[in-house]
Every structure is written in structure tokens, then in C-alpha cells.
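Amino acid chain
________________
===
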Amino acid sequence: MNYPSFKTTEYTVSRGKVPASFDGFRIAVIADLHDCTIGGDHSPLLQQLERLAPDLILLAGDMITETGRAPEHVQYRNAAHLLRQLPAIAPVWCGLGNHEKRWQEFAGEESLSFADWRSATGKWGIRWLENESAELVRGEDRLRVTGLSLPRRFYNKRKKVILTPAEIETLVGRADREAYQILLAHTPAFTESYMAWGAGLALAGHYHGGVVRLPFLGGVISTNFRLFPKYDCGCYPFPSGEMVVTAGLGCHTIPVRLWNPPELILLTLRSEGQERLPECRERVPLQQGRMSAGKEEVHGTHRV
């Protein structure tokens, strides 16, 4: 599936005790590519990322699609083309989505293994965070990113599943309350538990923006077939931090995105005393790029 255009959403986030030395730090968030392409070869997306100049790129899972069907159980080649180029722009840290988990558990001989994929992308400069953490240090301040990789039972489409903060702690350990703690999750279904665990900023995708978006109502259906999901896409403030959910860049199985363009997110961190905000907010009008004769153009603004 190829999408000729996408939108860029910029948020300022200021809760969660952003350290002074990370004031102005910029994070690009990408999720749910599902081996689709943007502009045929990802060039509009890559050009936009170069223009935005993020300090860090975080991938919130499902960059590939695990189909479960022979002869090729995993679609990954378009994702590979993008991932190979991202580390030239900024450091890239990657979490696992449910499709990567399915690939990880699939042992067929017909397809590239997830271990091979992880090894290859690691050589390109992608750092995987599978229930582990990585840190950036500036002076005495630390920014810590923890990648939460949930077992497949937490993606059950037939019944409601509960994830407790204690279960998160069992998987990834305790939140670091002395650092700016980012939780790189995939599904927003357990947002309240993420914040209770100790995330100053939680990031997710998975719901594809609700697939179809309606004025005033938002996303219509989640990828686990729940109508009007509470956290479909956007920035949601909590007393201790923010939850940011991206609408993602692609789709799979049912290729539908109505009034719901693919989305790239850019976050700018603000520390206390530096434009302290009562809640997260958009920083600028959103722009959508379009391919024309192989070049990227701006052709309008979009708001969520």
C-alpha cells in the first residue's frame, strides 16, 4: 500500500518533570508503518524528518506486517528501506508492536526470522528496546526510554484484558522517578496503567487513529474492534505526565483510512519555568506533503 501524502503533528509536552537540560529536546514518533510506503519511496517522509531535525526518533512498533500466510509470512521490505535511512537523521530507538511479537513467535522456515531482522536493523543503527531501557545524559539530567513489549494475550480482540502497573513492573522493572521517564508502548489500551507505573510521557499507536475519523467524534473503531476508543490519537494530559498516541503511517489487511491521513509526530519537551503549559497542545498548524513529479509539496493544513 502506498500513501502519496501524510500529515505532521507537533506537540509541546511540559509535564512529567522535564529536566532543564532537555528543554527544547525534539522527538519524532513513528508507528504502524505496516510495510507501506509514503510517496512511493519514503522520500517525502525522510525530507520532512531532515527538515524537522529531531534529536531522537522513536518507533512505537508495527513497522512490518506479519500476515500468518505462506509463502511470505512477513512483509518487511518497504520498512527496511525506511529504517536503513533513519539513523543518518538521528538516533533511532525501536519498540515492538503486536506484529513484531507474532513474527518473533513464528518459527517457519519460509520467512526471514525476527532474530535475523533485529540483527540486520541493528547493524543499520536501530536500537531495539524489548522490555529494556536506554538513556541519554546531559550533565546530571537523564532522559530514560523504556520499551514495553507485551505478550500477545494483551492484544486479545475477543475480550477485555487488564494490564496492571505491577505487571508492567514485572516486565520492565520500576520506573525511574529520578529521570524523565518515557514509556515506549504500542497499544494505548492501558494508558492509565502506564501513567500509574510512573511514565512522565507514554507513547503509543496501534489503533490507526480509529481507522475512520468523524468530526467531533474522532476515531470510529480500534484495531481490536472497539467502537470509539478513548485514546484513538492525540495528546492526553495527566497530572503526572502526558500520553501521546499517533494515528500511524500505514494499515494492513483492510486498507482503509478515511479522513485519517498517515501521521508523523514531533514532540518538543519543555521544562518547568520554560513555557510551562496547563496541558499538551499543538505548536504549529499541521502540514501535509504530497508527491508531484517526484517532489514534495505543501498543499494545505490539517488539524486533529
